[in-house]
Amino acid sequence: MKGLGIIGVGAMGGAVARRLAVSGIISPQAVILADKRKEHLDRLAEELGTRRASVPELAAESHTIIIAVKPNQVAEVLSELKRELTPNHLLISLAAGVSLAALAEGTDKAQPLIRAMPNTPCLIGQGAVVLSPNAHVSQGQLDTAVEIFAETGKVWVLPEAQLDAVTGLSGSGPAYVLLFLEALIDGGVASGLSHEDARGLAIQTVLGAVQMAAETGQHPAILKNMVTSPAGTTAAGLTRLEKSGIRGAVIEAVLAAAARSKEIQREQ
Q1: Looking at residue 208, what is its pLDDT?
Q2: Cα separation, 113 vs 106, whole angstroms
Q3: Residue 235 and which of 9, 29, 95, 253 are 20 to 30 A apart at CA?
Q4: Ranges of the chain whose pLDDT falls below 50
């Protein structure tokens, strides 16, 4: 892989840099970082053995550029990049709500562009990442993007029109799961377990259930029925959950987050 630049090395940009630095798919010296926070940038570059540069310098030495800044900073970054960009540069934006059309306006070229929607488990290499390329992205460039983000988790390629739904599901989804996990721990404590034991049991239960779904390929309802005996303890718990409206609440949460994603895009 040729030179790769990352502009913005906060939580997500830094996570991508860390995963790539140990991946073996690119030399750390071929990774160039840029960030306004000089001390933070210097520490990270020294830790990973990567290079650091200004935004224009980064563009001049990179074939692929990941923009990992906040949405309201994207226009400024594009203005700094513009003079150095060629149609051979691939730009990948992690900024939520900034459309491919808005990115194209900031480049003034037939620029290969990809919107990427990662989620927070990317920080530990267990993320779900969706890539949405524009019409100028070649198959080779898309393959490069998939290779990069495969270091942070599993990768899907979907049309941009589906990114709001993706945001509501996998983008915001970790928070829904963690809320359930928190409640599961609290329930264990309320039932008489120590917080330490409740936490350990809850985490392993969620991990095991999710891994079982992933490895068996069975519909969640089938796996749920495997542990639900007639008139048993699990049936009692599930009945209470269904009466509380948990199924509808989760669906509504995904829809609400997707709707908010659309609103944010209109506000940009």
Answers
A1: 98
A2: 11
A3: 253
A4: none
Q: Report DSSP letters for 159-224, one per residue.
A: -GGGHHHHIIIIITHHHHHHHHHHHHHHHHHHTT--HHHHHHHHHHHHHHHHHHHHHH---HHHHH
Q: What is the pLDDT of residue 210?
A: 98
The amino acid at 165: A
Residue pair 93/70 in contact by the 8 Å Cβ criterion? no
150 lies in the same domain as 190: no
Buried b / exposed e across 226-254, counting CB within 10 Å, b at 16+? eeeeeeeeeeeebeeeeeeeeeeeeeebb
Residues 19 and 127 in one domain: yes
List, for residues 20-30, the tens digit of each pLDDT value.
998 889 999 99
Question: What's this model's pTM, rounded to 2 decimal places?
Answer: 0.93
Which H or E run contains 31?
strand 31-34
**Which domain, by its residues, includes 135?**
4-159
Structure tokens at 185: 């721990």
Sheet strands side by side (includes 51-52): 51-52, 31-34, 4-7, 64-67, 90-93, 113-117, 127-133, 153-157
Q: Are 91 and 82 in contact (CB under 8 A)?
A: no
pLDDT of residue 1: 65
User: Does 47 lie in the same domain as 145?
Assistant: yes
DSSP bridge partners of 91: 65, 113
77, two tokens? 């970054």
Residues 71 and 192 both lie in one domain: no
- Nearest Cα to Cα of residue 18 among 2, 6, 36: 6
